[in-house]
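quick q for whoever's on today - can somebody do inverse folding on this one?? i tried earlier but teh output was garbage lol. C-alpha coordinates:
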Protein backbone atom coordinates (compact mmCIF):
# COMPACT_ATOMS: atom_id res chain seq x y z
CA UNK A 1 0.00 0.00 0.00
CA UNK A 2 2.76 2.46 0.96
CA UNK A 3 4.72 1.73 -2.21
CA UNK A 4 1.69 2.67 -4.33
CA UNK A 5 1.55 6.08 -2.64
CA UNK A 6 5.27 6.84 -2.86
CA UNK A 7 5.42 7.21 -6.64
CA UNK A 8 2.48 9.65 -6.98
CA UNK A 9 3.64 11.61 -3.91
CA UNK A 10 7.16 11.92 -5.33
CA UNK A 11 5.80 13.08 -8.68
CA UNK A 12 3.62 15.68 -6.95
CA UNK A 13 6.56 16.99 -4.92
CA UNK A 14 8.71 17.32 -8.03
CA UNK A 15 5.94 19.15 -9.83
CA UNK A 16 5.38 21.57 -6.96
CA UNK A 17 9.09 22.23 -6.42
CA UNK A 18 9.58 23.10 -10.09
CA UNK A 19 6.85 25.75 -9.99
CA UNK A 20 7.62 27.26 -6.57
CA UNK A 21 10.71 29.14 -7.76
CA UNK A 22 8.97 30.63 -10.77
CA UNK A 23 8.25 34.36 -10.67
CA UNK A 24 4.63 35.42 -11.18
CA UNK A 25 3.66 37.14 -14.41
CA UNK A 26 2.43 40.64 -13.52
CA UNK A 27 -0.68 42.20 -15.00
CA UNK A 28 -0.21 44.01 -18.28
CA UNK A 29 -0.94 47.65 -17.43
CA UNK A 30 0.26 49.43 -20.56
CA UNK A 31 3.10 49.64 -23.04
CA UNK A 32 5.64 50.30 -20.27
CA UNK A 33 5.40 48.20 -17.09
CA UNK A 34 8.13 49.46 -14.76
CA UNK A 35 7.68 47.10 -11.82
CA UNK A 36 11.37 47.51 -10.86
CA UNK A 37 10.83 51.28 -10.64
CA UNK A 38 14.02 52.12 -12.53
CA UNK A 39 12.54 54.59 -15.01
CA UNK A 40 11.81 58.25 -14.28
CA UNK A 41 8.37 59.74 -14.91
CA UNK A 42 9.76 61.52 -17.97
CA UNK A 43 11.23 58.32 -19.34
CA UNK A 44 7.96 56.44 -18.73
CA UNK A 45 6.05 59.12 -20.62
CA UNK A 46 8.59 59.26 -23.45
CA UNK A 47 8.62 55.49 -23.88
CA UNK A 48 4.84 55.16 -23.67
CA UNK A 49 4.34 57.88 -26.30
CA UNK A 50 7.10 56.46 -28.53
CA UNK A 51 5.74 52.92 -28.34
CA UNK A 52 2.21 54.10 -29.14
CA UNK A 53 3.43 56.10 -32.14
CA UNK A 54 5.47 53.11 -33.28
CA UNK A 55 2.47 50.79 -33.01
CA UNK A 56 0.25 53.28 -34.86
CA UNK A 57 2.85 53.55 -37.65
CA UNK A 58 3.78 49.84 -38.02
CA UNK A 59 1.10 47.81 -36.17
CA UNK A 60 3.99 46.07 -34.33
CA UNK A 61 3.25 45.93 -30.60
CA UNK A 62 6.30 46.58 -28.41
CA UNK A 63 5.89 46.28 -24.63
CA UNK A 64 8.50 46.91 -21.93
CA UNK A 65 8.58 45.07 -18.60
CA UNK A 66 11.07 45.76 -15.84
CA UNK A 67 11.25 43.52 -12.76
CA UNK A 68 13.80 43.67 -9.95
CA UNK A 69 14.33 39.89 -10.07
CA UNK A 70 12.81 36.76 -11.55
CA UNK A 71 13.93 34.57 -8.66
CA UNK A 72 16.37 32.25 -10.37
CA UNK A 73 14.12 31.32 -13.30
CA UNK A 74 15.85 31.46 -16.67
CA UNK A 75 15.29 34.74 -18.48
CA UNK A 76 14.34 32.86 -21.65
CA UNK A 77 11.61 30.82 -19.96
CA UNK A 78 10.23 33.78 -18.04
CA UNK A 79 10.15 36.08 -21.10
CA UNK A 80 8.40 33.38 -23.11
CA UNK A 81 5.79 32.91 -20.36
CA UNK A 82 5.10 36.65 -20.16
CA UNK A 83 4.94 37.00 -23.95
CA UNK A 84 2.42 34.16 -24.22
CA UNK A 85 0.27 35.16 -21.23
CA UNK A 86 0.09 38.77 -22.40
CA UNK A 87 -0.68 37.61 -25.99
CA UNK A 88 1.51 40.31 -27.51
CA UNK A 89 1.13 41.21 -31.18
CA UNK A 90 -1.78 40.90 -33.53
CA UNK A 91 -3.43 37.56 -34.20
CA UNK A 92 -2.24 36.18 -37.51
CA UNK A 93 0.70 38.62 -37.71
CA UNK A 94 2.58 37.51 -34.57
CA UNK A 95 4.17 40.96 -34.53
CA UNK A 96 4.69 41.46 -30.81
CA UNK A 97 7.91 42.29 -28.98
CA UNK A 98 8.59 42.04 -25.25
CA UNK A 99 11.59 43.91 -23.86
CA UNK A 100 12.30 42.42 -20.43
CA UNK A 101 14.83 44.09 -18.12
CA UNK A 102 15.77 42.51 -14.77
CA UNK A 103 18.36 44.81 -13.18
CA UNK A 104 19.02 42.96 -9.90
CA UNK A 105 19.69 39.77 -11.88
CA UNK A 106 21.71 41.78 -14.45
CA UNK A 107 19.71 40.24 -17.30
CA UNK A 108 17.78 41.44 -20.29
CA UNK A 109 15.86 39.69 -23.04
CA UNK A 110 13.92 40.71 -26.12
CA UNK A 111 11.21 38.16 -26.92
CA UNK A 112 10.02 38.41 -30.51
CA UNK A 113 6.88 37.10 -32.20
CA UNK A 114 7.35 34.82 -35.21
CA UNK A 115 6.24 37.57 -37.58
CA UNK A 116 9.24 39.73 -36.64
CA UNK A 117 11.94 37.09 -36.21
CA UNK A 118 13.46 37.90 -39.59
CA UNK A 119 13.84 41.55 -38.59
CA UNK A 120 15.05 41.30 -34.99
CA UNK A 121 17.41 38.36 -34.32
CA UNK A 122 20.67 40.25 -34.94
CA UNK A 123 19.36 43.42 -33.34
CA UNK A 124 18.33 41.41 -30.27
CA UNK A 125 21.89 40.22 -29.70
CA UNK A 126 23.44 43.67 -30.24
CA UNK A 127 21.00 45.46 -27.94
CA UNK A 128 21.37 42.90 -25.15
CA UNK A 129 25.16 43.25 -25.24
CA UNK A 130 24.96 47.05 -25.18
CA UNK A 131 22.43 47.19 -22.34
CA UNK A 132 23.64 44.42 -20.08
CA UNK A 133 25.46 46.75 -17.66
CA UNK A 134 23.86 50.05 -18.68
CA UNK A 135 20.37 50.20 -17.26
CA UNK A 136 20.56 54.01 -17.20
CA UNK A 137 20.86 53.96 -20.99
CA UNK A 138 17.42 52.36 -21.49
CA UNK A 139 15.67 55.34 -23.12
CA UNK A 140 18.44 55.71 -25.68
CA UNK A 141 18.45 51.96 -26.32
CA UNK A 142 14.67 51.84 -26.72
CA UNK A 143 14.89 54.67 -29.22
CA UNK A 144 17.42 52.73 -31.29
CA UNK A 145 15.19 49.64 -31.27
CA UNK A 146 12.16 51.67 -32.37
CA UNK A 147 14.08 53.47 -35.11
CA UNK A 148 15.26 50.15 -36.57
CA UNK A 149 13.20 48.39 -39.21
CA UNK A 150 10.82 46.87 -36.61
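ok took a stab at it. sequence:
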Amino acid sequence: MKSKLIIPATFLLLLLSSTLGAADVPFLTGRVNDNARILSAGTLSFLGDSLKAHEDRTTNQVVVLTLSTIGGESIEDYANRVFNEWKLGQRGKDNGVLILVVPDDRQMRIEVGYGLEGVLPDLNHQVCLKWKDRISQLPKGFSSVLSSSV
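fwiw The chain has one domain: 25-147. also Residues 7 and 40 are 52 Å apart (CA to CA). so keep that in mind when u check it
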